[in-house]
Prior knowledge:
The structure is a single chain. The mean pLDDT is 85. This protein is of the alpha/beta class and 159 residues long. The chain has 3 helices and 5 strands, in the order H-E-H-E-E-E-E-H. A hairpin with a 6-residue loop joins strand 4 and strand 5 (113-124). It is found in: Cell outer membrane.
Amino acid sequence: xxxxxxxxxxxxxxxxxxxxxxxxxxxxxxxxxxxxxxxxxxxxxxxxxxxxxxxxxxxxxxxxxxxxxxxxxxxxxxxxxxxxxxxxxxxxxxxxxxxxxxxxxxxxxxxxxxxxxxxxxxxxxxxxxxxxxxxxxxxxxxxxxxxxxxxxxxxxxxx
Length: 159
C-alpha cells in the first residue's frame, strides 16, 4: 500500500516538474485579465464564440475601451475550400475546409500585434447524402470556430 502511494506521489511530482498543464488552461498575464473586444459584427458566430471562451477563461470584457486595458480587434473571418480528391465521374469527393481569422491586439505603449489564426479540416462530400453533409459541414464549422477561439487565448497568453 505504501509503495502504491509513493509511486503515485512520484508520478505527480514528475508531471508537475515537466510543466504539464491540462489543455485549455492558460495562465494569462495580469495585463489581459481585463480587455475590450472589438468586432465588425458583434453578433457574428465567431464573436460570440470568442466572447464565450474569454469569459470561460476568467477574462473580464470591458464594454468600453480604456487607455490601460488592451483591445482585441477581431478582423474578417474567412472560410476557404480546397479540392482534395475527385470521384471517377469528375465530381469532387473530398474537400479541405480552411477557416482563417485575423486579429489585432492593441496595447498601451506597445506596437500592435497582428495575428493570423487558421484551422483546417478535411470533409468528405457524398452527393447522395446532401442533407446530412450540409449538417456535418455546419458542425465542422462550429468546431473550427471553437478551436480558433482557443488558439486566440493561447496566443494572447504568450504575448
